[in-house]
Design a protein that fits this description.
125 residues; mainly alpha; two-stranded antiparallel ribbon; 4 helices; 46% helix
């Protein structure tokens, strides 16, 4: 990026070197800055989160020199995920179904017992 022919990935402007870092002449963006910020977050993530918990987000962002939105996103991404438990909504009206089978009885006639067994097989299916 020293010959001036390199283009900025953000705006397409010409790049130049400033203190060894490429800077765009048009927008002033350092294309290596996002990667550097990501490396900072990955390397010092636990310390940043500890500071955010102890000092608060605003003071931690000021201490580490990172935007508060980035710190908020870092806190959101690093906190443990809690599974959401959703309960089914109660039925709006009672279900239309058959009444339950009466308990088995040995006092029934054999025809009633056979009919009860056939009905039980259908219910179990």
């Amino acid at each position: 990026m020293t010959n001036g022919n390199d283009k900025c990935p953000r705006c397409g402007g010409r790049m130049y070197l400033e203190y060894g870092h490429p800077i765009c002449l048009n927008c002033g963006e350092d294309p290596q800055a996002p990667a550097a910020r990501k490396n900072l977050y990955e390397k010092h993530g636990a310390e940043i989160l500890a500071d955010a918990g102890a000092l608060g987000n605003k003071a931690a962002a000021r201490r580490w020199g990172i935007p508060r939105r980035s710190l908020g996103q870092l806190v959101k991404n690093k906190e443990p995920r809690v599974p959401v438990v959703q309960a089914a909504a109660p039925a709006a009206r009672p279900a239309i179904s058959q009444p339950p089978l009466p308990p088995w009885s040995d006092q029934w006639t054999p025809e009633v017992q056979v009919q009860w067994l056939l009905t039980y097989e259908e219910v179990v299916k």
